Amino acid sequence: MSRNSARTDEMLENENNRLLESVAAKASLMKSVGIDMNREVKSQNRKLGDMGGDFDSTGGLLGSTLGRLNQMARSGNSRFMLYVIAAILFMFFLIYYMTAMRH
User: Fold this and answer.
1) What DSSP string describes 32-89?
2) Considering just the CA atoms, what is the radius of gyration of the chain in Å?
3) What is the pLDDT of residue 44?
4) Rounded to an integer, what distance in angstroms lies between the CA atom of residue 81 and that of residue 74?
5) pLDDT digits over 9-48, tens only?
6) What is the pTM of this model?
7) What's residue 22's pLDDT?
8) Do residues 51 and 43 touch, judged by C-beta distance below 8 A?
9) 59, 67 in Cβ contact below 8 A?
10) DSSP code at position 20
11) How far is CA 75 from CA 27, 68, 71, 85, in A?
């Protein structure tokens, strides 16, 4: 009986060691996936920060352009304002058409 018990104990210990190695390999894989995810998140946050700065500068540019258009509209040059509005509408529809054709 003690021989069978020793043999069973050895088999159980071998199985436990095999399972322990499997768990260690999976933990190592999870660690590397976590590190990769951390790098990707940091990269994306950096890109989003840069994009926010770009939007701020674009907003300032659009604000100053709108100010100039308002000043021009107040000056009474309505024919030129009509051309500007027509050009903006044309560009909008052109961009819309080009993006609609892609899909």
Assistant:
1) HHHHHHHHHHHHHHHHHHHHHHHHHHHHHHHHHHHHHHHHHHHTT-HHHHHHHHHHHH
2) 34
3) 93
4) 10
5) 899 999 999 999 999 999 999 999 999 999 999 999 999 8
6) 0.49
7) 95
8) no
9) no
10) H
11) 71, 11, 6, 16
CA angle (43, 49, 52) in 5-degree steps = 145
**Residue linked to tokens 């051309």:** 83
Structure tokens at 38: 């951390």
Q: How many CA atoms lie within 13 A of 51 on its CB side?
A: 6
Q: Are 66 and 58 in contact (CB under 8 A)?
A: no
What's the confidence (pLDDT) of residue 26?
96
